[in-house]
Amino acid sequence: MKFLDQAKIFIQSGDGGKGCVAFRREKFIEFGGPSGGDGGKGGSVYFEAVRNLNTLIDFRYQQHFKAPKGQNGMGSEMYGAKGEDVVIKVPVGTVILAEDGETVIKDMTTPGEKFLIAEGGDGGRGNIHFKTSTNQAPRYAEPGWKGKEMWVWLKLKIIADIGLIGFPNAGKSTFLSVVTRARPKIADYPFTTLYPNLGVLEEKGQDIVIADIPGLIEGAHDGTGLGDRFLKHVERCLAFLHLIDASNEDVVQAYQTIRKELGLYEKSLMEKPEIIALSKCDAVDEKDCLKKQKILEKETGKKVFLMSAVTHKGLDEVASELFKYKNHQNTKVNIQTESKPWEPRL
Fold it and tell me: What range does the domain containing 231 cover?
């Protein structure tokens, strides 16, 4: 399935039905009074957040959503039927924006949540409502009210527990493919990942949703590379797993560049918890790897893990650390470190 994280669609609720001008015509009733019924209310347009969707690809093939109008009123005081509502299903995490692309209308973050975006027009009143003592036979009925129409932007922000960040070719997709059942595209050239991938890491009945986004480069916040398009997908993450290629000559510079891009895109991202790991340690001399680890720990003031997705070195430690962050957010207590070692899925 192709991934699409933004779409522009047109929405129109139904017009209200016309009220009816009619009079009673019955035997032995020479001057029957008005009997025109009201028009039906137009159909409304709703958004609904559902679990089983993870892309907006369906909106590439359908961009217009129009609810039917209400039925016109009829004689004998018969009211028109209401127009059928239209429910647009979107993935959890979809943000609905106005046509300007900036004004937030609604953030759909709860599964099953429904939001009324455009209410149908009210039906017009029939001539039975306009009878007065001086006008016993009104020949007027309301035409019904127009529905609402608008263009809106849909932008999907993936809801994940852990976001993988780092330069292109830092080993993010390889890590995701080893620790989860996800099968992202993997190759030895930059920007192999062109859209976010999700995977679920499971251990002892617990699970963590991990999001792998395309690699970031300097200037990503301003449109360079693919970063500005996909940085939004890490906004909702509980924590980051920052992977740095151990073969990089200056690991501190690589770390600082990514952190700078996060801050320039959204300052709040700098406050999220971060787990740092040197990846691809199998391709670097062990002494060199340990040296870079100490330098990076001194610079960041945080523990730096050594790992290799190919040899599975250090993956159990990193996985345990990820679960600590998840459980700390959910229960505010740390998990026991004596748990059974995590085993990668091949």
Answer: 162-331
